Amino acid sequence: xxxxxxxxxxxxxxxxxxxxxxxxxxxxxxxxxxxxxxxxxxxxxxxxxxxxxxxxxxxxxxxxxxxxxxxxxxxxxxxxxxxxxxxxxxxxxxxxxxxxxxxxxxxxxxxxxxxxxxxxxxxxxxxxxxxxxxxxxxxxxxxxxxxxxxxxxxxxxxxxxxxxxxxxxxxxxxxxxxxxxxxxxxxxxxxxxxxxxxxxxxxxxxxxxxxxxxxxxxxxxxxxxxxxxxxxxxxxxxxxxxxxxxxxxxxxxxxxxxxxxxxxxxxxxxxxxxxxxxxxxxxxxxxxxxxxxxxxx
Amino acid sequence: xxxxxxxxxxxxxxxxxxxxxxxxxxxxxxxxxxxxxxxxxxxxxxxxxxxxxxxxxxxxxxxxxxxxxxxxxxxxxxxxxxxxxxxxxxxxxxxxxxxxxxxxxxxxxxxxxxxxxxxxxxxxxxxxxxxxxxxxxxxxxxxxxxxxxxxxxxxxxxxxxxxxxxxxxxxxxxxxxxxxxxxxxxxxxxxxxxxxxxxxxxxxxxxxxxxxxxxxxxxxxxxxxxxxxxxxxxxxxxxxxxxxxxxxxxxxxxxxxxxxxxxxxxxxxxxxxxxxxxxxxxxxxxxxxxxxxxxxxxxxxxxxxxxxxxxxxxxxxxxxxxxxxxxxxxxxxxxxxxxxxxxxxxxxxxxxxxxxxxxxxxxxxxxxxxxxxxxxxxxxxxxxxxxxxxxxxxxxxxxxxxxxxxxxxxxxxxxxxxxxxxxxxxxxxxxxxxxxxxxxxxxxxxxxxxxxxxxxxxxxxxxxxxxxxxxxxxxxxxxxxxxxxxxxxxxxxxxxxxxxxxxxxxxxxxxxxxxxxxxxxxxxxxxxxxxxxxxxxxxxxxxxxxxxxxxxxxxxxxxxxxxxxxxxxxxxxxxxxxxxxxxxxxxxxxxxxxxxxxxxxxxxxxxxxxxxxxxxxxxxxxxxxxxxxxxxxxxxxxxxxxxxxxxxxxxxxxxxxxxxxxxxxxxxxxxxxxxxxxxxxxxxxxxxxxxxxxxxxxxxxxxxxxxxxxxxxxxxxxxxxxxxxxxxxxxxxxxxxxxxxxxxxxxxxxxxxxxxxxxxxxxxxxxxxxxxxxxxxxxxxxxxxxxxxxxxxxxxxxxxxxxxxxxxxx
Lengths: 297, 810
Ligand SMILES: Cc1cc2nc3c(=O)[nH]c(=O)nc-3n(C[C@H](O)[C@H](O)[C@H](O)COP(=O)(O)OP(=O)(O)OC[C@H]3O[C@@H](n4cnc5c(N)ncnc54)[C@H](O)[C@@H]3O)c2cc1C
Ligand code: HEM
Ligand code: SF4
Ligand code: SF4
Ligand code: SF4
What we know:
The structure holds two protein chains of two kinds. Chain A is mainly alpha-helical. Chain A has twelve helices and no strands. Chain A has helices at 7-14, 33-55, 67-84, 86-91, 100-122, 130-163, 168-185, 191-202, 209-215, 222-232, 238-270, 272-296. In chain A, α2 packs parallel to α5 (100-122), α5 (100-122) packs antiparallel against α6 and α7 runs antiparallel to α11. By secondary structure, chain B is of the alpha+beta class. Helices cover 31% and strands 24% of the residues of chain B. Chain B is built from 25 helices and 43 strands. In chain B, the strands form twelve sheets. In chain B, strands 1, 2, 5, 6, 7, 8 and 19 form a seven-stranded mixed beta sheet that branches. In chain B, strands 10-17-11-12-13 form a five-stranded parallel beta sheet. At the A-B interface, α4, α5, α6 and α7 of A face α19, β37, α23 and β43 of B. Bound molecules: flavin-adenine dinucleotide, protoporphyrin IX containing FE and iron/sulfur cluster (3 copies). Protoporphyrin IX containing FE (HEM) binds at residues 80, 83-84, 86-87, 90, 104, 107-108, 111-112, 114, 138, 141-142, 145-146, 148-149, 152, 272, 275-276, 279 of chain A. Residues 648-649, 652, 658-659, 675, 770-773, 780-782 of chain B line the site of one iron/sulfur cluster.
């Protein structure tokens, strides 16, 4: 372990001052943080558990109630509480030195170690009871966390490419600008051509519900519909119609960018709406599990 | 109208009004001449409801008019009352156009007739006159010259004439979507060369989004009520127009002032009229006070108004209102002397103060500190940031230049000037050589001193050049070695992007970067490859001198810079005389050559890594980071868009985020968000009336309390990172939000919440910018709070270090 926590680093960390701050020269993601320090620690811990489980002889057999099981259980429960604390750490801007990246790194790898800690704690005795419910919830939280790590490491680049230096605000403004231009360009059109354009103008770029948001597909998109209608229409003056069609396709492209943006952002966030509520369900089940163990065993 | 008054006061701003009030109170015959139809036009033109601040706090107000922090309307109303109460004889709409005659019999020509006066107090401020439109109809009332509040215009056809920063900002203001105005901006030429890049890009964007129409090569031809005829490249065109905002620049009052025969301290923009301790200019009988005299704060203006009339009335014993502040500055010194004695002592002893007038001396001292140091006491340490200038009033200092070598600096000289020129960290540790008294002059005061007193400028430049060279050549040289160079320095200004040395050229001159920074590039396989970033204080061109060969790389300015050119021959002689310098230089050359070789050899096998490194460097320089000392860089391969960085910034400061993550340019997923770069020469510092922008101990550029909200820094920062914003009210605690969901949660509260919480109250908007989390032990909150490691704060030389390439290219 000594090499995992170099002295220099600990020393620096405790006296990070105004003149000597911890500075990084280049970007290093949370997964690689400190040369995979937490992956190594967590891996080591899992190995230790697996090996000791095989070596330690508890009678009559391994289960949560043995001294060995109690040890793992205590570690696991403590770990779960600590993992939950990430939500607080993320938002509490205290002024001392800490790095949320380091926390996330430890969270991810230690969180994964719970698979071993929790499962080996049960002694592989699973059934239809509150104890197994706690275990299952834990596994679900971990699974959702895994999904999170996958999207965190694959989607950011796509988000960046899609927005192409534009901010979300600017994307919205671009759409509004096309709307304004459409409004005046549609004046010379015949009523039957105007109606779909007006519908496109009325469309709220945020409408469409969670399904559309996540899939990025908007089958009832009024802009696309207007484009289809006008493409086939022969009723208005051709030049005026072409101008509107041009604007509609520009608006459609702008909408596509915004929708893709919202989709990626949603994918990057949606899992937290599973991860966090499940965490609270887990803590509730865990409490029930612990209380029942102590009072009714 | 021609009874001669004792004093005519021109301009009814805080300075002139206070002077006239004193004259009124003394029963002195006087007249106050004001160009507009109201008093104090500069303040009259502030934004509606603006809180006017009464800085500096420690200075007492000495005036017959009231003044304390408050809303613009309240202050103006008070002054109208005070003017009447003090029996001020004011003539409005009397613009002074010419002054002739001499003391005792001045003739003052105005748009309301002529006046005669024995003395004149000139208090016309620095706003000058706006240039007017020249086409027919230019006197119609719907032509305005400022926009107080864009909200005053709703659903109007507005044409902005003039495409400098002021015009663009006004146009953007009234083009705000919610106002539903139809905005047109006219530009006489094809491009917008006079405006800041940020403003131009904002305007172009507004144009592309249909918020305003941008008409280039177009001028107004005829103004009529409701309509404006334009002269365009394709012929005349008549557009609807309810309001014309004319922003055609203004004529600085300097020409007018000089036409009276008043001399200025120098040709620079920063120069002020030469004045005696009683504010008398070089024309006897004409006194200059207020912003025009170089005192932009209202309180100073008002005190001077009072004082100047007392002086004219023959009061010789008046001590200035700042006397007690000056006394406090000298209080800590071992000897007991009066303020005047101390000031004379300093002027006699310190070379840079020799040409300073007693009045200027008072002002510089207010921005300075004087302290007594025991022998051996450290004044500052090497690598400490700091940009103040020290002068030795008594005793001496010793510079520790490394390797146990020290160099003395004698009484009367200065030190700390390197930070002044380049804004970089201190180059060496300095101690007191004996029991000494040192004066510490703030950077702003020192720059002002240099602008106002040419003698001081020469001394500082000479000494700083000498020291910079000594520092760069690591103690191997002596002052005598540098004599020929310093006597006649070849200082060249290099605009950003200009090539100083081209690969393959002949030549053996050596260059030292005095300010700014350079990039070194080499042509490898037909493409310029970035080799190195050279910050201020580095030298280049030495390879050719040592090898006698052609230039082996191209060096060009990353930002506007200054270099000192040393003749190859001079440099060789220096090397011949000083073997130490020769060894040091050869070592530097060997190291640089090794890096060049490394890059060249990798280019063959890892060309994509080298290209990426080089292109990234190019992008970083293009974004102006060449002048940064510390910039926020986001890796968009890692950023999940959670905006926790912005939230952390807001929560670590008064609830306002000092960075805009999404805005800004991106290259190869490297994103430069809108956030302060802590420039080497901060543009924002240039023109801050209360002088509250400083460089702190970590190199951070920050604002101390006392901002008056004038917006100068925001306009001067080329990177658009300063916001004018009022701190939102206190939020409920985090725990309460987590448990009950009550309140706006982490980060900057929404404007809606703030508005609801504040109700009618209009808090004061002040400048808000990144302070690098000064005073927060953990360091930059934005970096600490990023869950994925996407955000870091670095200097360009750290970020572009060769280690980066070595890792990527194996
Ligand atoms: C937006 C903004 C905000 C500011 N906020 C603050 C603040 O909060 N606190 C603070 O202390 N300072 C502030 N300042 C600075 C301060 O307002 C000025 O420095 C101060 O008003 C200068 O006073 P003055 O009397 O020297 O000149 P001015 O106030 O400029 O007055 C000059 C007067 O002379 C008149 N005049 C000009 N030429 C002629 C002529 N030829 N004939 C007759 N009359 C003429 C003008 O019409 C004007 O009324 C701010 C400045 C700005 C621009
Ligand atoms: C039982 C175990 C776990 C618990 C109780 C838990 C709990 C939490 C909580 C409370 C948060 C805070 C969310 C927020 O406030 O935004 C969080 C975030 C997160 N968790 Fe877990 N977690 C667990 C396991 C895991 C695992 C195994 C992984 C990955 C493999 C993981 C990955 C993450 C990630 C990536 C975040 C987001 C960090 C951020 O964006 O700030 N978690 N977790
Ligand atoms: S505010 Fe602007 S000018 Fe000032 S240091 Fe920051 S980036 Fe530079
Ligand atoms: S360094 Fe601090 S003040 Fe600057 S942007 Fe980051 S959090 Fe804000
Ligand atoms: S905190 Fe990090 S990941 Fe989140 S938005 Fe900021 S830079 Fe991106």
